UniProtKB/TrEMBL annotation:
It comes from Proteinivorax tanatarense. Signal peptide: none annotated. Residues 13-114 form the Glyoxalase/fosfomycin resistance/dioxygenase domain. CDD domains: VOC (cd06587). This is VOC family protein. SUPFAM superfamilies: Glyoxalase/Bleomycin resistance protein/Dihydroxybiphenyl dioxygenase (SSF54593). Pfam families: Glyoxalase. InterPro entries: Glyas_Bleomycin-R_OHBP_Dase, Glyas_Fos-R_dOase_dom.
């Protein structure tokens, strides 16, 4: 089947929708696309969407899943998270994937990667 997809939303569980909202909307600046009560969906420029729902289970294992947000200014996001009081490792170049990035955890325990492609 071939169709013209109009977008995509990846949904994740949360035990604290408001804490998650503050992290993704207020700290990271993602725009709230839709508030469905039990779920909040955020837009990322160029069409991506991510949703968090209080009726879904939080499932994490080591680094999985990884939520990756792309930006041209990894260092600016790093400084914002440090100023917010999070313990975040310094960004670094990963030559294997040709990226500049760092990892942290979101309020739900999901691995959050802030990344820039170098090619």
């Amino acid at each position: 089947m071939v169709t013209n997809w109009t977008g995509m939303v990846a949904f994740y569980g949360t035990d604290d929708l408001e804490k998650t909202h503050k992290f993704y909307h207020e700290l990271l600046g993602l725009n709230l696309y839709k508030d469905q009560g039990l779920c909040k969906i955020y837009s990322v420029r160029e069409g991506g969407k991510i949703g968090f729902c209080s009726h879904l289970e939080v499932l994490t294992k080591e680094k999985s899943p990884i939520i990756t947000l792309l930006t041209d200014d990894v260092d600016k996001v790093y400084k914002s998270l440090i100023n917010f009081g999070l313990d975040v490792p310094k960004p670094k170049v990963n030559p294997k994937f040709n990226i500049y990035h760092f990892f942290t955890k979101d309020p739900n325990g999901y691995s959050l990667e802030i990344q820039k492609f170098l090619d």
